[in-house]
């Protein structure tokens, strides 16, 4: 580390501090950020040369690790052809290949693909599809959404309207947020502990309201709204009720898609197929912002029969060729790897280290599903204290609220994962020490 580099880093961080808004950060007193200058495999390198083992996969997305030679090559190759071209009236090979792959790999029946530029946009498109479907069927009064509490579906306004009302701070948005219907989130953690009363709240909503267009939920794993896992039986019952009541099912697999839960898509745990599916995050292996909304022919034909037979949506960067090319390569890498075995091995190691931590007095619950590990504490963590402690332990995690969680790249080695997990144990001891 040279003196010059240190000064540079400090100057850059000062500019960052002064001008840049980071996710969910204070405008007046933002917390410090780490200056990352390189990343490779599961390691982030800071400006001063410090290396951290990454447990976040940059929010579920970097499933093959950073700076992957084959993903880099795929991007470079596409760059030589074209970086971008508009998607209105024009198409291109990477988009065509990706659409075909997605139709083949996602649950049966999903046959139409809309390329979006982020997860939140994919959710907006899904909701638009559901509303326009009922409108086209002469059922325009069906214009509300039913969802379950503790959900997270993105930060745009329609997406926010179906986020958990408390976590999503609905009180703050008042009249700007469309009021939707909320059922209690299921409590049964898995089918072995299935309790049919989990459905009572949902059934009540379904019986009370005849203006529901769709149920939207995250299948099996609720992500940013609480990192909760629930029984596949709930999802099967939701699917059955959607058919019974003539409403659509929107599955938000933006976090769970591409193998994270041990299945390629979390819907597979329940053996169901939604009418509309949103995917994002890991779709490009974490290289570029990209997402997609798929629907079945019931939805696409239903919309096409209406007086406005086209879906009214078309982002400028729709179907970006660079994003499609890197998505194609990322999916190829995934499907040609023993990903399922890797996720099972990660799951086993996560369970071995994390589940015993539930005995600690500071820990309310420890849970693991696929390559997702969650420690729920009794008290919210103090990021200002915890983040430097994590850095000192040589790992990168970004806890929120009472949740300390990790979803590493599938390429993480057992030794690297061990280091992450031992650091978490150490951290919990430290937390216990400063809370006492
Ligand atoms: C991250 C996420 C979104 C929003 O995706 P962005 O790309 O951040 O807009 C929506 N739904 C779920 C389940 C997510 O995890």
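Q: What amino acid sequence fits the structure above?
A:
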């Amino acid at each position: 580390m040279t003196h010059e580099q240190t000064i540079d880093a400090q100057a850059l961080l000062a500019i960052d501090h002064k001008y840049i808004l980071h996710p969910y950060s204070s405008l007046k007193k933002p917390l410090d950020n780490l200056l990352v200058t390189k990343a490779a495999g599961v390691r982030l390198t800071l400006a001063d040369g410090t290396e951290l083992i990454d447990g976040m996969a940059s929010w579920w997305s970097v499933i093959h690790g950073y700076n992957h030679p084959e993903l880099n090559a795929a991007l470079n190759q596409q760059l030589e052809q074209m970086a971008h071209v508009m998607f209105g009236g024009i198409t291109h090979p990477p988009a065509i290949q990706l659409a075909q792959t997605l139709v083949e790999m996602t649950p049966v029946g999903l046959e139409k693909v809309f390329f979006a530029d982020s997860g939140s946009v994919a959710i907006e498109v899904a909701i638009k599809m559901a509303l326009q479907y009922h409108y086209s069927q002469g059922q325009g009064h069906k214009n509300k959404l039913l969802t379950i509490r503790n959900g997270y579906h993105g930060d745009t306004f329609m997406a926010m309207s179906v986020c958990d009302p408390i976590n999503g701070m609905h009180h703050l948005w008042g009249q700007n947020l469309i009021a939707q219907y909320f059922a209690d989130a299921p409590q049964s953690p898995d089918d072995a502990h299935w309790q049919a009363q989990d459905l009572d709240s949902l059934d009540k909503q379904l019986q009370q309201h005849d203006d529901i267009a769709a149920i939207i939920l995250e299948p099996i794993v609720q992500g940013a709204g609480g990192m909760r896992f629930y029984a596949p039986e709930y999802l099967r019952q939701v699917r059955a009720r959607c058919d019974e009541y003539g409403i659509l099912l929107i599955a938000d697999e933006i976090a769970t898609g591409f193998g994270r839960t041990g299945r390629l898509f979390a819907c597979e745990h329940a053996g169901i197929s939604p009418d509309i599916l949103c995917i994002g995050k890991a779709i490009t292996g974490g290289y570029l912002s990209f997402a997609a909304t798929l629907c079945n022919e019931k939805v696409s034909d239903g919309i096409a029969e209406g007086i406005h037979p086209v879906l009214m949506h078309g982002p400028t960067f729709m179907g970006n060729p660079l994003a499609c090319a890197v998505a194609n390569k990322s999916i190829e890498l995934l499907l040609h790897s023993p990903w399922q075995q890797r996720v099972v091995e990660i799951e086993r190691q996560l369970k071995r280290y994390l589940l015993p931590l539930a005995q600690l007095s500071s820990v309310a619950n420890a849970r693991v599903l696929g390559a997702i590990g969650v420690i729920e504490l009794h008290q919210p963590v103090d990021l200002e204290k915890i983040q430097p402690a994590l850095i000192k332990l040589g790992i990168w995690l970004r806890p929120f609220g009472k949740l300390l969680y990790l979803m590493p790249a599938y390429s993480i080695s057992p030794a690297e994962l061990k280091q992450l997990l031992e650091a978490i144990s150490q951290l919990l001891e430290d937390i216990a020490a400063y809370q006492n």
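Q: And what stands out in the fold?
A: The chain has a mean pLDDT of 95.
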